[in-house]
Write a structure and sequence with these properties.
With about 300 residues, this protein is mainly beta. It has 2 domains: about 100 residues, 3-Layer(aba) Sandwich (Rossmann fold), CATH 3.40.50.1700; about 120 residues, Immunoglobulin-like (Sandwich). It contains 4 helices and 13 strands. Helix 1 runs parallel beside helix 2. The protein starts with about 35 loop residues before the first helix and ends with a strand.
């Protein structure tokens, strides 16, 4: 089929709109060449000649731009997988404001940095992290699933009364709520809950010690979760109630304190009234919703 750059065509459109919005998109791709395969091959060849590879990927989203799939659009998954398979240590930087599935390439990548929407100074900030001039300490405010089939997936769900796994997939998230790594490691110890029993209107103090066990200075985000063990209505399996970011030099330790009182222990009862019910609350302190390091109990009488 041949075409002329200045040819004229008549188009007749007939449609019937029953519900929803009407939309018309006219696509004209004559003469457009798909060079994605050549560009991916070029990136792979460059990676083989390099000491390290950095692949910047991202998603298209926004108001009226919802995504049906959480995978990276286009051939980005293929690009990352093939660059990583070149044998060069590969870092993937993800730009976006929502969860992304990474199954096709995650096991092959050396590291993943989620930069969200970093703004005008984002390039400098990302460079500082990549070169080790800054030690990241961000934590995920959402859950990243392995697959869309796991959705809805969130850490503070109510007891289901069934197994969490699927026939063909685990029920665990790829990255849980509160997850985040840095260039150092931290140790938790010495959990204390004082007093161990309080009245509904009183408060208790939760203390623990956090130590930087790595060789670099860094920040840790200490997270405190609660579970109301037995209540008059169904309660979440865990809820984030407090967190604190602490900066520690290598080998340095710090005591972290949280206060638990009516604001943290209350719930809406069946009549939608705020109350603090007597009972036992499980206290969990850790680095994420799935990385609980210390456990204890607080009784409310």
């Amino acid at each position: 089929m041949s075409w002329a750059p200045e040819s004229t065509h008549q188009i007749r459109l007939e449609y019937f709109e029953s519900t929803g919005n009407a939309r018309l998109k006219l696509m004209w791709d004559a003469g457009v060449t798909d060079d994605s395969e050549a560009r991916i091959a070029e990136a792979v060849a460059l990676a083989r000649r390099s000491d390290a590879a950095v692949v910047v990927a991202g998603v298209e989203e926004g108001e009226f731009r919802d995504r049906a799939r959480l995978s990276l659009p286009g051939r980005q998954d293929d690009l990352i997988r093939r660059v990583a398979e070149a044998g060069t240590p590969t870092v993937v930087i993800v730009i976006g404001g929502s969860a992304v599935t990474m199954s096709p390439w995650f096991d092959r990548a050396g590291a993943v940095l989620d930069a969200w929407y970093p703004g005008e100074q984002g390039g400098l900030a990302v460079a500082d992290v990549l070169f080790g001039d800054a030690n990241p300490a961000g934590r995920l405010p959402i859950t990243f699933p392995v697959s869309e089939g796991q959705l809805p997936l969130y850490y503070n769900h109510k007891p289901t009364g069934r197994g969490d796994d699927y026939v063909d997939l685990t029920g665990m998230a790829a990255f849980p709520f509160g997850f985040g790594l840095s260039y150092t490691t931290f140790e938790y110890s010495n959990l204390a809950i004082e007093p161990a029993a309080i009245a509904a209107s009183a408060t208790a103090t939760v203390r623990c010690t956090v130590k930087n066990t790595g060789s670099r200075a860094g920040d840790e985000v200490v997270q405190l979760y609660l579970r109301d063990v037995i209540a008059s209505i169904a309660r979440p399996v865990m809820e984030l109630k407090a967190f604190e970011r602490v900066s520690l030099a290598p080998g340095e330790s710090k005591e972290v304190r949280f206060t638990l009182g009516p604001e943290q222990l209350r719930m809406l009862d069946k009549d939608m009234r705020w109350i603090v019910e007597p009972g036992v609350f499980r206290v969990m302190v850790g680095s994420s919703s799935k990385d609980i390091r210390l456990r204890g109990e607080l009784a409310v009488r």
